[in-house]
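Q: Give me a backbone?
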Amino acid sequence: MIIGRDIRRFYGIGAVQVRALDGVSLEIGKGEFVGIMGPSGSGKSTLLHMLGLLDRPTSGSLSIDGVDVGALDERSRTVFRLRRLGYVFQDYALVPELTAQENVYLPSMARGMTSKECTLVCSEILGVVGLGDRIHHLPSQMSGGEQQRVAIARALVNQPALLLADEPCANLDTQNSRIILDLFKRLNKNLNQTIVMVSHEEWHKSYFDRIISMKDGVIETEKTDNLA
C-alpha cells in the first residue's frame, strides 16, 4: 500500500534549516492499522502530511496504492487525494452550519455524485459509525465524540484506499477516545481498511498492529508484533 524511500523534508536554509524528516524509509501493507508515535517535534505529523499529499518531500520517493505520487502534477495530486485518501483531524473540521449528513456530502459532491446518490451513501456511512439517528443534527447539537465520528464518516464516504488520522482523540476524553479507537479497529478488521494514525498516548498502543516510533526526524524503532 505504501512504500517510502529516504524521504526528507527540510525547512529553511543555512544555519536555521530544520530537518523535519531526515531520511525516512517505510513500508505499510494493505489492511494494516499502523500507529506513528514519538515526542513533539519528532516528525510524525510531517510524515503523515507526506503520506496524505498535503506537502511534498525535499527528496526521496513515495508510492501509494501502486502510484508514484511524487511524479503527479498538482491537479493529479488533488484527484488522488479525493479518490484514494481519507483524512481525520484532531479538531473535527466540520462546517458548523451543516448537518452531519451535509458535512459527509462534501467529498461525494466533489466527485460528481447526484444529490440522490449522496443522500443514500451518506446515510449508509453514518449508520456504519453509529450515527444513523443523528444525520440531521448540527455539530453544535452533538458531543465531541459524535462530531469526530461524523469526521470519520466523511473520510470514509469515498471508500479510500488509505485512511489517515492525525491525533484524532486529542480533544476527547478517555471514554470517547475508546469509542473512536474501537471504531477504527472495527473498520480495519471488517473492511480491511488501511489506517495510519499519529498518536502520543501510550494506551493507544494496544489498538495498533504495528508501531513506528520517531525521534528527531527519523524512525527510531518499529514494533511489528500485534499488541492487541
User: Anything to note?
Assistant: The longest strand covers residues 18-28. The chain has a mean pLDDT of 92.
